[in-house]
Design a protein that fits this description.
With 338 residues, the protein is of the alpha+beta class. It is built from 10 helices and 18 strands. A hairpin with a 3-residue loop joins strand 1 and strand 2.
């Protein structure tokens, strides 16, 4: 009757800027919640973590702050990250809390040694018995079904909330790649600034994200669209609603999209020519929430001349890939970073 307590449960975590996902073997992804904490400054207490904070964004009194302890894919607030991780880990392991879990956690490829230590320390302090760190582009490639252990080149572009990780992978290692801190969050900010300058209207992050998801695109749509957006007029300071077109949002996003596409080209330029045939035949795999921007695949395809495919479930690809190595210790040893 106590058999389920015999061994600690292993977990894989995609600790993202926008969302944190936790994978448990035989169960799959058990947690997919915002990387956010609602903190009451007045009483120095935490009110909510994860999903419970979502409805509060932009609607709290001054003494309650919605904190995102991750910024640009790395820890910005150690204390809050530790608290958030502890909450997610305990929620994932449930009855097995007596035995601290072993954790595999995915991080951006551009992470520094200091940032890596912060991830490791916060995960240990959150309750892990062992912490193994792997790189997000390798996890994304695994989750996307690419044969990363074979002597062939596979290219992945993982666009998250805080970072875009681009890598050409072969023999379980990154042959060439780059990590830029330009991704989904910067797209939202670009929309906010565009509407502020062009329409004299101040909108929040939630509205910007909704606009991006509904009428945003990286390439002309077959049928352009119009959306109504609520906000506060800067001159009168009164609430107003404005109409905005998909062409305008594409203009707002042009700079961010250009930065991502240029990073893809730069990675291709650094890739050894012996891998060219593999990349030409196999193309590029797009993953991550930012990859869902409509027609981004067409934009990259037009610029690079390569086939581009969107992962089947791009929001969970990194977590799925990290989860795969939980049952493959040999592969985990090969891709783990110090």
């Amino acid at each position: 009757m106590f058999r389920f307590l015999r061994f600690p449960k292993n977990l894989a975590i995609d600790l993202g800027t926008v969302n944190t996902l936790v994978y448990v073997p035989s169960q799959g992804i058990v947690i997919n919640e915002p990387s956010a904490v609602a903190f009451d400054i007045q009483h120095d207490s935490i009110l909510a973590i994860g999903q419970d904070t979502k409805a509060m964004v932009g609607k709290t009194p001054k003494h309650i702050v919605i904190m995102r302890p991750m910024k640009d894919g790395v820890i910005a607030d150690f204390k809050m990250t530790k608290t958030m991780l502890k909450y997610f880990i305990e929620k994932a392991i449930k009855r097995c809390r007596l035995f601290p879990p072993k954790v595999v956690i995915a991080v951006p490829s551009g992470i520094t040694d200091v940032e890596k230590k912060a991830v490791r320390d916060s995960t240990f302090q959150a309750g892990a018995s062992k912490v193994t760190i792997i790189l997000e582009p390798i996890a994304a490639a695994l989750g996307g079904g690419l044969p990363i252990q074979e002597p062939v080149g596979s290219m992945v572009v993982d666009i998250g909330g805080g970072t875009t990780d681009i890598a050409v992978i072969a023999m379980a290692g990154i042959v060439s790649g780059c990590c830029i801190r330009t991704a989904g969050d910067e797209m939202d900010e670009a929309i906010i600034q565009y509407i502020k300058q062009k329409h004299n209207l101040l909108i929040g992050q939630r509205i910007a994200e909704r606009i991006k998801q509904t009428i945003g695109s990286a390439y002309p749509l077959d049928r352009e669209q119009i959306a109504k957006i609520p906000g506060r007029e800067l001159t009168s300071r009164m609430f107003r609603t404005r109409k905005i077109s998909s062409e305008e949002i594409r203009e707002a996003l042009a700079g961010t999209v250009k930065t991502i596409v240029e990073a893809v080209i730069m990675t291709l330029e650094k890739t050894p020519p012996d891998l060219a045939d593999d990349i030409i035949r196999r193309g590029i795999l797009l993953t991550g929430g930012g990859a869902l921007l409509r027609n981004l695949d067409d934009k990259i395809k037009e610029t690079t001349g390569l086939p581009v495919a969107l992962a089947d479930d791009s929001l969970t690809t990194v977590a799925q890939g990290a989860g795969k190595v939980l049952t493959d210790p040999d592969l985990l040893r090969r891709i783990a970073i110090d």
